[in-house]
Design a protein that fits this description.
This protein is an alpha+beta fold. The protein contains ten helices and eleven strands. The strands form two sheets. Strands 1, 2, 3, 4, 5, 6 and 11 form a seven-stranded mixed β-sheet that branches. It has a four-stranded antiparallel β-sheet with strand order 8-9-7-10. Belongs to the GHMP kinase family. Homoserine kinase subfamily.
Length: 306
């Protein structure tokens, strides 16, 4: 008989300004994945929503690759696999769509093979597939996460911010691959720029832990990646300024971009409209999303073992 499980995984905002490749947050936008193991051999993959017609429906599908990674890890050999994806997270926008697919595949396959892999093992597998932990960690655990990786080992500290805020995400109509966004980064940076980021990343985490979000006004600047990626996102600084003018605490590139996200505790719709208008003034069509912090991470929402 078929076994199936359905999981929900949040989109994520990585870097959060100075926390390059280390800090991430989960947001209330979700992808759903249903995995079914059948007695009939073969692979069937269906994609609905974001990425329909674009995401591979064969062995190159990254969620399927994550499923297969679990099967290999635990020694499972199912006859057939049915994978159904329902996506709301925009692709190639810096909101962790690939991380969500990876985490969804790992979580679903682990559930159907007896949940033998720990969360820490799933995190390490997800990081190996994705290449860095800043998106996969919050997708897996929810909340805000700080991650470090060395020699294949990943350490992640999950925190629940002590104050409530809204993440206003301006979503441009154009996409930007992580590979292209990384190609513009320098191989080395000045010592003063590294020091600049260390202090701000530390204060960012402190502000989240204590709930003193007023400090976000001073800590969201970055010198390791945003100045170099600015050329790829027309009007970036104007969008940042428009958000702050409407009361936002600050704004950053979401992941590798091109989405820009502002953090606010007041008038999020006004902030979003201002950001979209600023993009339009620079010839870029965009819309905005209002996201709260997802505190659950990857969740099994349906399970059928009959």
């Amino acid at each position: 008989m078929a076994q199936s499980v359905k999981v929900r995984v949040p989109g994520t905002i990585a870097n959060c300004g100075p926390g390059f490749d280390a800090v991430g947050m989960a947001g209330t936008i979700y992808n759903y994945l249903e995995l079914t193991l059948t007695e009939q051999p073969g692979v069937y993959i269906e994609v609905k929503g974001e990425g329909s017609g674009t995401i591979p429906d064969n062995e190159h599908n990254i969620a399927y690759q994550a499923v297969q990674a679990v099967f290999r890890k635990v020694g499972a050999e199912p006859c057939g696999v049915i994978l159904r994806m329902e996506n709301s997270i925009p692709l190639a926008r810096g909101l962790g769509s690939s991380a969500a697919a990876i985490v969804a595949g790992l979580t679903a396959a682990n559930a159907l093979t007896g949940s033998n892999l720990s969360s820490e093992e799933l995190l390490e597998m997800a990081t190996q597939i994705e290449g860095h932990p800043d998106n996969v960690a919050p997708a897996l655990f929810g909340g805000a996460t700080i991650s470090v990786a060395e020699l294949g080992k990943v350490r992640c500290l999950r925190i629940d911010p002590a104050a409530i805020f809204t993440m206003v995400v301006a979503v441009p109509e154009f996409g930007l691959s992580t590979k292209a966004a990384r190609q513009v980064l320098p191989k080395t940076v000045p010592h003063r720029d590294a020091v600049f980021n260390v202090g701000r990343a530390a204060m960012l985490v402190g502000a989240l832990c204590t709930g003193n979000l007023a400090y976000l006004r001073y800590v969201l600047d970055d010198r390791l990646h945003q100045p170099y990626r600015q050329r790829l996102i027309p009007g970036m600084q104007r969008v940042f300024a428009a958000a702050v003018a409407q009361g936002a605490l600050g704004a950053v590139i979401s992941g590798a971009g091109p989405c820009l996200v502002a953090f606010t505790q007041h008038a999020p719709a006004a902030v979003g409209e201002a950001m979209v208008h600023a993009f339009a003034e620079n010839g870029v069509k965009a819309h905005y999303l209002l996201l709260d912090l997802d505190r659950s991470g990857a969740q099994i929402i349906e399970e059928d073992n009959t």
